[in-house]
């Protein structure tokens, strides 16, 4: 009688959901059909269990094809691993015709594995065992020796438990994404925008000197003890475009992370990620730097940590999109020299470690948190030591090159001479750049002989620097030493044939 198959359908579904940990994707109590998902060892098993009597082979094949297409159309729901489809039919009798090889005939998509099980009365025990073994689950004991009246009385209870479990899990998932309210995100947006407006009112935010004055990451100053710049540089931005891009990212990513982690965890992760990224930049990047990018990448790291703790849910929602955005930003940073990759990667790693250290809400893994926080401190201290020793970037001298170039543009030539003269006592690999900047300052201070002396040393150290040859040609022209002027003008024109000024000077001198 149909009541036996009806009861069996709900009993198997109940076991898979309540005892085996399968997640309900969709359930239709009226048509007696359920779609479930079970994850194990990086494979997603999608289970469609249907109470339906199928009589003919072609009817079975058509129904499987419809099921197969539904899975393909909604495959984005099952991201994060290989998808295996298990289709179970519960009925009194099997199809009249042979049905076992139907799957091999219709399985054209090599990316999907399709398995068919037919729980008819005569072979349901055998097919059930095959199904549970395929998923490596413990096969349950499904007692059938009860009266039809008892079966009929139990079916509503089984339905209610399955539906209640489904609703409870939906509420749990919803709570993961709605733990906190985005308060600190809006505060950070306001702080960054207001500081940008203030700095812009005092001078240009694209000016290196202005940035240094207001707390940008400047390695020479940090090496002299101004470690506070690691934190202050998180709230400065270089130009309007830089601000807009970072604030747009902070708005979208910040709201998502703050909802998941809550305000105080979000704030700590943001700050620690920014500091970690700033120290990584200090270690690897010699240039003057500023911006919230390191902290924002730390929020990416926080979402990745969420993905580690909730892998299945992560890939169903944001997973591959987030990984794509991170990979795109890393690739962009590699291709564009001006991007501070040290801050970006440091922020990403720092945000991940900080998230592990303070964990997700309602989770308490003291052992893991202790290791994460200890690791954060050790790695941060190691990067700070390496940066202070200048093992990777000779940051102090590069920072002085940038600063003196900016000072030349602003007309503070005396300061340029002072800074470069002090730096040239131990110039490292930036002697040519420092002397070039000083030569320009000397020339503007009406000291051409000293400018020539510096430029002669520059072309000796960097013979391919066309600008140095060009400036030497101009200075020799002023002195009336035409042959030397022509020689350096020709060299500059040969090095930079696309530079119209270099070509015109050569023609004029000849």
From TrEMBL:
Offer one Pfam family short name for this entry: TPR_11
What Gene3D superfamilies does UniProt report for this protein, alphabetically?
Answer: Rhomboid-like (1.20.1540.10), Tetratricopeptide repeat domain (1.25.40.10)
Question: May I have one GO cellular component term?
Answer: membrane
* Domain Peptidase S54 rhomboid: from-to ranges: 225-356
Q: Where in the cell is it found?
A: Membrane
Topological relation to the membrane, as annotated: Multi-pass membrane protein
Residues that span the membrane, as ranges? 234-254, 266-284, 290-308, 320-336, 342-360, 367-387
Q: In which domain of life is the source organism classified?
A: Bacteria
Family matches, as InterPro entries:
Peptidase_S54_rhomboid_dom, Rhomboid-like_sf, Rhomboid_protease_S54, TPR-like_helical_dom_sf, TPR_rpt
Q: Which GO terms describe its molecular function?
A: serine-type endopeptidase activity
**UniProt KW Transmembrane keyword:** yes
Keyword annotations for this protein, in alphabetical order, are:
Hydrolase, Membrane, TPR repeat, Transmembrane, Transmembrane helix
Q: Does the keyword Transmembrane apply?
A: yes
User: Where does the UniProt entry say this protein principally localizes?
Assistant: membrane
Name where the TPR repeats lie. Answer: 432-465, 466-499
What protein family does this chain belong to?
Belongs to the peptidase S54 family.
Supply the name of the protein: S54 family peptidase
Tell me what organism the protein belongs to: Halobacillus halophilus (strain ATCC 35676 / DSM 2266 / JCM 20832 / KCTC 3685 / LMG 17431 / NBRC 102448 / NCIMB 2269) (Sporosarcina halophila)
């Amino acid at each position: 009688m149909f009541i036996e198959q009806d009861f069996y359908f709900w009993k198997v579904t109940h076991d898979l959901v309540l005892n085996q940990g399968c997640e309900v994707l969709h359930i239709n109590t009226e048509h007696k059909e359920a779609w479930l998902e079970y994850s194990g060892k990086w494979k997603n098993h999608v289970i469609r269990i249907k109470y339906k009597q199928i009589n003919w082979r072609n009817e079975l094949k058509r129904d499987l094809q419809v099921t197969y297409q539904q899975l393909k159309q909604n495959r984005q729901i099952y991201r994060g691993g290989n998808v295996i489809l298990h289709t179970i039919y519960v009925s009194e009798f099997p199809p009249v015709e042979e049905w076992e090889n139907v799957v091999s005939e219709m399985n054209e998509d090599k990316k999907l594995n399709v398995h068919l099980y037919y729980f008819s009365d005569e072979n349901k025990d055998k097919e059930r065992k095959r199904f549970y073994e395929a998923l490596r689950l413990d096969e349950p004991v499904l007692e059938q020796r009860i009266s039809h009246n008892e079966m009929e009385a139990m079916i509503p209870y089984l339905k209610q438990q399955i539906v209640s479990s489904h609703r409870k899990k939906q509420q749990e998932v919803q709570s993961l994404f709605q733990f906190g309210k985005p308060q600190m995100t809006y505060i950070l947006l306001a702080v960054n925008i207001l500081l940008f407006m203030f700095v812009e009112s005092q001078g240009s935010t694209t000016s290196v000197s202005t940035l240094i004055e207001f707390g940008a990451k400047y390695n020479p100053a940090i090496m002299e003890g101004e470690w506070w710049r690691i934190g202050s540089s998180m709230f400065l931005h270089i130009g309007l475009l830089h601000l807009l891009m970072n604030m747009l990212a902070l708005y979208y990513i910040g709201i998502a992370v703050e909802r998941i982690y809550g305000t105080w965890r979000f704030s700590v992760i943001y700050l620690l990620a920014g500091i970690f990224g700033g120290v990584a930049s200090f270690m690897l990047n010699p240039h003057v730097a500023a911006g919230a990018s390191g902290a924002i990448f730390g929020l990416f790291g926080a979402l990745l940590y969420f993905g580690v703790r909730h892998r299945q849910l992560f890939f169903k929602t944001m997973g591959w999109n987030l990984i794509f955005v991170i990979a795109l930003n890393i690739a962009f940073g590699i291709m564009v020299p001006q991007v501070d990759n040290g801050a970006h990667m440091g922020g990403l790693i720092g945000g991940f470690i900080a998230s592990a250290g303070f964990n997700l809400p309602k989770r308490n893994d003291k052992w893991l948190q202790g290791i994460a926080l200890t690791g954060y401190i050790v790695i941060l201290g190691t990067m700070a030591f390496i940066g202070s020793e200048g093992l990777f970037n000779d940051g102090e001298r590069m920072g002085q090159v940038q600063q003196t170039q900016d000072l030349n543009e602003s007309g503070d030539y005396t300061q340029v001479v002072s800074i470069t003269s002090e730096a040239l006592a131990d110039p490292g690999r930036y002697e040519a750049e420092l002397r070039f900047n000083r030569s320009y300052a000397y020339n503007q201070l009406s000291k051409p002989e000293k400018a020539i002396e510096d430029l002669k040393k520059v072309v000796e150290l960097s013979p391919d620097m066309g600008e140095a040859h060009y400036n030497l040609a101009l200075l020799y022209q002023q002195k009336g030493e035409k042959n030397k002027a022509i020689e350096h003008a020709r060299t500059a024109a040969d090095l930079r044939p696309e530079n119209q000024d270099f070509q015109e000077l050569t023609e004029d001198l000849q």
